[in-house]
Amino acid sequence: MDQLLTFISNHWDLFTALIIIIALLFGSTFLDALRGIKQIGPAETTRLINHEKAIVVDVREDKEFATGHIINSLHIPMSKVQERLTELEKHKSSPIIVSCRSGARSNSICGLLRKNGFENVSNLKGGLIAWQNANMPVSKN
């Protein structure tokens, strides 16, 4: 214990950097949990689609969506989600899974949906990249 205290006092800058890195790693996960946003992978997404009739909302831009998307996903670009919330109202009682390329944009849209009264919202962790890496099918229609 004395060695740890000596290390911390001699290398306080390294120790501070370590604390910041740990806070960044766990902070976003903790905040998502507080906001009620579930992070789910491709397998759980497939289960929700098949067994609970989940709706997948793809928030990528038009060109990205055209390169491939989850089959039967609803395309609402991130920039238009706020103005198109009424389209999602009919799905308010269904699980909603939001996806984008990597999971970052979709995570912020999950927060927006939660603020607007959507209770069962999940983020596709890793986005379409994780979906494709799991060898899940994509559609280009």
Shape: elongated
CATH architecture assignment of the largest domain:
3-Layer(aba) Sandwich
**How do the strands of the widest beta sheet line up side by side?**
1-6-5-2-4
Q: How many domains make up the coordinates? A: 2
Strand content: 5-15%
CATH topology type of the largest domain: Oxidized Rhodanese, domain 1
Percent of residues in helices = 40-55%
Q: CATH first level of the largest domain: which class? A: Alpha Beta
What kind of assembly state do the chains in view correspond to?
single chain
General description of the model:
This protein has 141 residues and is of the alpha/beta class. The protein has two domains: 1-35; 37-139, Oxidized Rhodanese, domain 1 (3-Layer(aba) Sandwich), CATH 3.40.250. It contains seven helices and seven strands; from the N terminus they run ααβαβαββαβαβαβ. The protein has helices spanning 2-10, 12-35, 42-52, 62-66, 85-89, 104-115, 127-133, and strands at 38-40, 55-58, 69-70, 74-75, 96-99, 121-124, 138-139. The termini are far apart.
